[in-house]
Amino acid sequence: MMGLADITLFLDDMDFLSRAVIMAIAVAVPLALLSPFLVLKGWALMGDAISHAVFPGVVLAYVFGIPYALGAFCAGMFSAVAIGFVKNNSRIRHDTAMGIVFAGMFGLGLVFYVKIRTAVHLDHILYGDMLGAMGEDIVLAAAIALGIATVIGLKWKDFLLHAFDPVQAVVAGLSVNALHYGLLALISLSIVGALQAVGFILPVAMLIAPGAIAFLLSRRFSTMLVVSLAVAVLCSVLGVYIATVLDSAPAPTIVLLLTIVFLLVFAFVSLRQHGYFLKGRT
């Protein structure tokens, strides 16, 4: 049996393109599994808020010499709790609270980033560097993907009930707060896993687009999960290869590919609803 060090060494020995493909899949899996829940709950802005809010945690992690994943996760969870606290203790709407918290956290991160930029180079964390992913980055992303996939596989029905009807979830004996903050924790973890690959700027697109595409194509939530996963993995792998051909960055190429797929699916569904794909119709 290969140990963790052996797996990391094996991944380091692979060529950069193979590592990028594996990293793309490891990032796509958790984002795709969470995407349908965010789409159903209308939490697109929450994904954006957390993806920006983890920035100061990463910068401080570099300063104090602790794993950046730990700093990012702590900052993400702090932001999620802060948003809930502001919403529950004021008349401010949820989206307003998200906007205030994530803008403030991202601004704080930029201040820290500028102050230490001469000593520590964080551009690859800010913008992502999928082609430069090393073995330890892939192992971390894969471990997060496995953990999130396990939780979703065991609890997706509970999360689904909470997304559709929190009141019914309470009646069914579920802990709404545990599901709420559990989902936020999973979102934070998925963004931590995506940092090396896509940075802070693009995770929200990869967190929303697969679920939106699956929502247009599916009527059952279980099918929606499968479609979201398939679309995210396929676009991620194709995006890496297209980026190498075009000499482009993989992360924005993947996001652009997801956007194109969404537009094509949207056009197809719209035309089908108007009867353009029925027999005898041109």
Description of the molecule:
The chain has 282 residues and is mainly alpha-helical. It has a single domain, classed as Orthogonal Bundle (ABC transporter involved in vitamin B12 uptake, BtuC). The radius of gyration is 20 Å and the shape is globular. The termini are far apart. The mean pLDDT is 83.
Class derived from helix and strand content = mainly alpha
Q: Using the CA coordinates, give the radius of gyration.
A: 20 Å
User: Helix and strand string, N-terminal first?
Assistant: HHHHHHHHHHHHH
Number of strands: 0
Keywords: Membrane, Transmembrane, Transmembrane helix, Transport
Subcellular location: Cell membrane; Membrane
GO biological process, one term: response to zinc ion
Transmembrane segments: 20-39, 59-86, 98-118, 138-157, 169-191, 197-217, 224-243, 249-271
